[in-house]
Design brief:
Layout: E1 3-4, H1 17-26, H2 32-49, E2 56-58, H3 66-73, H4 79-82, H5 88-97, E3 114-116, E4 123-125, E5 128-129, H6 140-151, E6 156-161, H7 163-169, E7 171-172, H8 182-198, E8 203-207, H9 217-230, E9 236-240, H10 250-255, E10 260-264, H11 272-278, E11 284-290, H12 300-314, E12 318-322, H13 341-344, H14 350-366, H15 372-387, H16 394-401, H17 414-425, H18 442-453, H19 458-479, H20 496-499, E13 503-506, E14 513-516, E15 519-521, E16 525-531, H21 538-546, E17 554-557, H22 559-564, E18 567-568, H23 574-594, E19 599-603, H24 618-633, E20 641-646, H25 655-661, E21 665-668, H26 678-684, E22 689-692, H27 705-716, H28 737-757
Parallel strand pairs: 1-12, 2-6, 5-7, 6-8, 8-9, 9-10, 10-11, 11-12, 16-18, 17-19, 19-20, 20-21, 21-22
Antiparallel strand pairs: 3-4, 13-16, 14-15
Helix pairs in contact: 1-2, 8-9, 12-14, 16-23, 18-19, 23-24, 24-25, 27-28
Amino acid sequence: MVKTHNLGFPRIGAKRELKFALEAFWHSKTDADALAQSAAALRRRHWQQQADLDWVPVGDFSLYDQVLDMSQTLGHLPTRATAHGGSELDRYFRVARGRSAEDSDCQGVHAAEMTKWFDTNYHYIVPEFTADIEFDLNPERLLDQLAEARQQQVAAKPVLIGPVTYLWLGKTKDASNRLDLLPRLLPVYAELLHALARAGVDWVQIDEPILVTELDADWQHALRHTYHELKTSGVKLLLTTYFGQLRDNLQLACELPVAGVHLDAINARNEVAQLVDWLPSHKVLSLGVIDGRNIWKSDLVTTLDWLEPIHAKLGDRLWIAPSCSLLHVPVDLDSETELDSEVRTWLAFALQKLDELRTLARALNGGRDVVSSTLDANRAALVSRRQSTRVHNPAIAAATDGVSEQLGERLSPYAQRAVAQSERLALPLFPTTTIGSFPQTSEIRQARRQARSGKLDPGEYETQMQREIERAVRAQETLGLDVLVHGEAERNDMVEYFGEQLDGFAFSRFGWVQSYGSRCVKPPILYGDVSRPRPMTVDWIRYAQSLTDRPVKGMLTGPVTILNWSFVRDDQARSTTCYQLALAIREEVLDLERAGVGIIQIDEAALREGLPLRRAQWREYLHWAIEAFRIAANGVADTTQIHTHMCYSEFNDIMEAIAAMDADVITIETSRSDMELLGAFEDFDYPNQIGPGVYDIHSPNVPSEAQMVELMRTAAQRIPPERLWVNPDCGLKTRRWHEVTAALQNMVSAAQTLRRGFEGQDFSRTAGTDGR
């Protein structure tokens, strides 16, 4: 009999219950007991929804991040977060958010760095290592959740991040070698596994997704050593990989002394047969046969066609599961009563994906006849999608076929454009700006809800949004910012807002997925060919510019980010869809320019996360991704300044591609990394202007003027001052007005201090003289 299991479940809740519980706690509206009760209620519900699986994940639930949970379990939180005392929960959130929720004396504790989880839009808290750190097991969180699951009669399978992946995910603060820590780390993992064995655990899912990346001999040896050390732990280990192919690590995965191996059969379908042949006969093979990262219905009949022979060969040794944790998809399609009815029949969210898994298991164990009606309905939905005239538009296909590199060329090299822009904009040294959004207040959200429900007519909604835009503009003028934004009050999300105005998209109401902590996003559903029927932002930006003599940026989301932050159709190449998006955004850019907008920001926050996990595949992706950005951005005159923004990414290994974007100004996240990321731009001799973030907007901390001055002086040692901007790390929509006002006031003061410090030096805003 084939066995079913799941690798992880969306923790936020079908209606974002975790988000609201966390934020109520952070704002001191509830206490730690109330937060714990809300979390326990979510776990009970999620386990109940998975109860009929043969194995149910336990420990996948987290109050903030599963990597931070692993750090806590290993007794490895930064000293700055633990030195001030407080509760364990308080110390946990100090690492995640940068200050204590209870202690007023911890304002100076800065949050840990955050970055993308492999090639997803989920962000994890980066473990911090030094050569002298020690680990100390703290298993209570996991053991408590295990006890809860047992009370619910759940067949519990604890989930751990594997020790080698844990080291790989972290960063050293003293240039030491992370792998040198393995001898100290493994005894703690062994102790944890023994504790689980004593608690009666049979199987443990131990995630080593680095096996789908390119590993050198040292990391491969570390994996061999690790699992030889852990093989006597008293539990059965399911070595779990996801997000890609094993390739040159396939033999290694087969040979490691574990009880089973999980393969992402969505991304590594071509490796299944080899794994079946190579895996020793005493090991379980778990196949991820349901896509855990996209929301399209599975082709159940086709899956059964290739899965049935494997089941016949392996019998009880075959387990089936989603390809990865379902963290990356919304919870329940049944909640989507307002979703386009035709598109809805093509989709499956987390609960529906588990239903698909159950259908496959029933067919394998009892024959297709026992699920014939379900298979017929699945087949009909797939045919409907394939034949729908809403999916394919010949005119858009023709326009995409006509895309050429010439569309992405600026009229002049950067050095010439910089002179023209300087003359037009007349900005000071260290110009100040923000990334785009200002706080999304309860009044803004209420107006949006009322407009959606029809309680607020379009005219009144526009008037309210204009009042909010004026508030943002006046606040920026009062603060003394040099380049303003309109605040994006009218936007629900930087991707969804544009998708709502483009053909080819559909939208859920409850399709939330976690980005980090309590931050959730609702990705648009990109089901068909993309086009722009009308201007999307021009009227709002034109209104904002009418309120002030200072330049107001036009704010757009770039084609690559819209692609990577959407649930994208899987019936054509992603590059084709991206070019369609690029042509649509290009039309908007040109309309903004015709409206007199002199600075246009096209955010590509998700450029890096689209990178394949193996470097050998990077060149192809970067070629079409950068070309798509250039097509969107580069139809403008020399006097129009193009900005782009990227957040929480490493740039060292893609600097050539970033330079090829040819944006006049790039703003990046650097505050959590102490300007470390600027080293890549310095080493590359990046020729254009840069705004390194000096204000971590993901933390409630208000940075001081002195802190920001210090960060910018560090930046000026790497990048010529005449090419530096001063700005926050990211948009300000998640912060509150009093936090934003105080932080931006300090930021403007910091810029003024910097200008006085560099007074008398011959700088201009015409940075870059090498002709690039």
